[in-house]
Amino acid sequence: MRRRGPGLPDFPWDSLADHAAKARTHPGGVVDLSVGTPVDPVPAVIQAALSSVADVPGYPTTHGTPELRAAVVAAVERRYGVTGLAPEAVLPTIGSKELVAWLPTLLGVGPGDVVAVPSVAYPTYEVGALMAGATVVRLADGEPPPAGTKLVWLNSPSNPTGRVLSAEQLRAAVAAAREVGAVVASDECYLSLPWGSSPVSVLHPSVVDSFDGVLAVHSLSKSSSLAGYRAGFVAGDPELVAGLLELRKHAGMIVPRPVQEAMRAALEDDEHVAEQRARYLARREVLKPALEAAGFTVSHSEAGLYLWSTRGEDAWETISWLADRGILAAPGTFYGPEGERHVRIALTASDERVAAAVERLRA
């Protein structure tokens, strides 16, 4: 008998199987714009760092090397203007998804507690809450969390919508969470990919005067093409990070030593981040107008890796329309009921495949 956790939904991507099969029958092959997985090479400086410690046989530290944590502190200040972060308040994670999924449990959230997520949101926020036995509420823009909320998820730039929250909006959200005694976790995995806006970290001094009760979650998957390395980190409130560290030590949730070294190299080098941003921008600049010319409206999408798009119909009708043209996208229903008329179209395909999609949209 196949079992899954209590109350967990089916894995959403499984429901795309039939549409994926149809898209693969296209004479020119499938253009997969559904999952935001990087396709560009891992930068040489990162590969070299990974292999440089390939012969280190001992166990890595759960807290990460001092050099890695110092690199995080320097990078978030240099890239995002975050000041006052201590190296002790940084913790590497095995990518960001596992941290998102396990954070409610690691924070002691459980039955009778509430986890608040955005109205249109990355599905793992909800899955992590359900794994902990908590209740999930979806908050409209600016809506305060209800009493009993223990964790509030923020996400700017958003996956899937690409929407960016201003410093004022983030500040108000943090204040509302603190009013009910909730921890704020801000998913900032797309912070390095601004297009028509200037995203700000929840740890920026324009948002918070202290890191109390606030965590920022980061991933190197997109900015450094490291999805295969599983490289991320969480930072912020020193006491919360210390608690997470203690539990992760017991659970063996440790980033491998070569990956820690790769992360250090990625965080110390800004050139490859700019180069990767330029690749995504070039793809965006041809794909977005092609979608609009084909009758799509692109909503938000001012940052991040996706074009949040609608043809004014049910999302699954649009998924079928695209699959007929050999293009695979993600239905907005994956991200909550309010996404039912949108699809998420990723920029994470090669230049050749994006060009093929543009040609098919024009046909």
Name some characteristics of this structure:
globular, seven-stranded mixed beta sheet, 13 strands, 11 helices, alpha/beta, 363 residues, 37% helix
Percent of residues in β-strands? 15-25%
End-to-end separation: 47 Å
Largest sheet strand order: 2-8-7-6-5-3-4
> Could you state the oligomeric state of the chains shown?
single chain
Return the average pLDDT rounded to an integer.
96
Q: What characterizes the major β-sheet?
A: 7 strands, mixed
Total of DSSP H or I helical runs spanning 4+ residues:
11
- Tell me the radius of gyration: 20 Å
- Gross morphology is globular
Helix content: 25-40%
Structural classification: alpha/beta
Give me the count of strands: 13
Low-pLDDT windows of residues: none
